[in-house]
Amino acid sequence: MIGPYTILNEISEEEIRHRVKEIARSIRGEYQHREPVLIGVLNGVFLFFADLVREISIPVQIDFVRVASYGTKEVSSGEITFTKDIELSIAGKSVIIVEDIVDTGLTLSYLVGHIKKKNPESVKVCALINKLERREKEVQIDYCGFEVRRGFLVGYGLDYNEKFRYLPHIVSLQIGEQCKESRHDN
Ligand code: IMP
Ligand code: MG
Hints:
The chain contains 3 helices and 10 strands, in the order βαβαβββαβββββ. It is an alpha/beta fold. The two termini are 25 Å apart. The model has no long low-confidence stretch (mean pLDDT 89). Bound molecules: inosinic acid and magnesium ion. The site of magnesium ion (MG) has 5 residues, from loops.
């Protein structure tokens, strides 16, 4: 027990590095001559995105969106506010949306719809973690790092109430009742 948090499980730096390389290899194979636009969903994706882009090692363009969803406890409500949109023109381009975690699927399904309105040639989704327990909206994840059934994950960019983003590995936390918050950041 660390204060009000209990660490349940862990995905090590080594496992993350290995999986990022595998995902990057698949993307490289498929997008060899297409210079895809990778759109990262801030803030949680920042470490995964930086590692992925370097491992892909073919020319890509990058851009970011920032969204916030609000809800109760650790569950997002699906009410999504855009605080930063992309700045590149993506019409006719091959786009890959890069997310940290897909949980309810509400953020991603909203984002895919938003990006498709800008007339890209194609849109695919890459997510570091696919969390299966609370899916409400079916979303296709084309490149997935890890599937996790349940739990609240932090580290490697992922936060709980802005804590733990700096950890180089991922841990699953059991959060004490007294510590639950209503703000749900990306
Ligand atoms: P959604 O429920 O699929 O809309 O997920 C919205 C966002 O909540 C994700 O992009 C993450 O930033 C965040 N999120 C969901 N589950 C977790 C978690 O276990 N740890 C940290 N952030 C999470
Ligand atoms: Mg978050």
